[in-house]
Amino acid sequence: SDAIEYLKTASPERFSAIHASPPCQAYCVTNKALGNAHTKPDLVDPTREALQSTGLPYVIENVVGAPLRDPVLLCGSMFGLGTGDMWLRRHRLFETSWYVWNRPLCRHPTGKLCIGVYGHGTHTGLRNKLGRDLTLAEKREAMSIDWCTKKELTQAIPPAYTEWIGKRLLSEVLDDK
Predict the structure, then answer these.
(1) Which residues have CB under 8 Å from 132's CB, separation 6+?
(2) pLDDT in tens, 57-114
(3) Which spans in the chain are helix H?
(4) What is the band of 35 on the pLDDT scale with cuts at 50, 70, 90?
(5) What is the CA angle 28-32-35, rounded to 5?
(6) Considering Cα of 30, then 32, then 36, then 38, what sign does the dihedral take?
(7) What is the pLDDT of residue 9?
(8) What are phi and psi of 115, to 5 degrees?
(9) Backbone Cα Rg of the chain
(10) Which long-range contacts (CB under 8 A, 24 or more apart) does 9-16 make?
(11) Average of per-residue pLDDT across 163-171
C-alpha cells in the first residue's frame, strides 16, 4: 500500500514505465486451501488504478489466480530453467497496459521431474521421488538466482521473466516516443 500512496503523489514525468508486484498471498493456492486468503491484502485492483492514473505504460506481476486482465503467463519451462534433470514449473502472470504479441507457451518436458520453489520446503510428492528435500543451491540454480535466501526465493521472480517482459516494455516505451 506504500507503493500505491507513492504513485498517487509521484510526478509521472520522473518515469518512463512502471513494473509492480503487489502481494500475492490473497490469491495463492495454499492460502485459499487453508481458508485464510481473505485475511491477506488484496491490492491488485488498487495497484492497477494507481498505475493507470499515471498514464504510463505498466506491468503488474502476480500468481495464477490473481485478478489480472488478459495476462501473459510465463513459466520456467519457457526459459529452460531448472537444475540437473529437474525443470522449474513456476507460473507467473503479467498484466500489461498494452497488448503483448507472440506470447510464449509452456514447454513442460516429459521424462524430467518438475520442481517448484515456493512455501516452506519441498513438495511432498517430489520429496518422495527424490528421497530428500531440494537444497538451497538447487533452488537457486533452478531460478537462476544465486543471491537470495531460501525465504526470498519463494517470493522472487526469475530474472529470465523480468528480462522477457522488460524487452517488450522497452519496445512499447520506445515505440511511443
Answers:
(1) 122
(2) 999 999 999 999 999 999 999 999 999 889 999 999 999 999 999 998 888 888 888 8
(3) 2-9, 29-34, 44-54, 124-130, 136-143, 150-155, 159-175
(4) low
(5) 145
(6) positive
(7) 79
(8) -125, 155
(9) 17
(10) 10/54, 12/54, 12/55, 12/56, 15/54, 15/56, 16/56, 16/57, 16/173
(11) 93
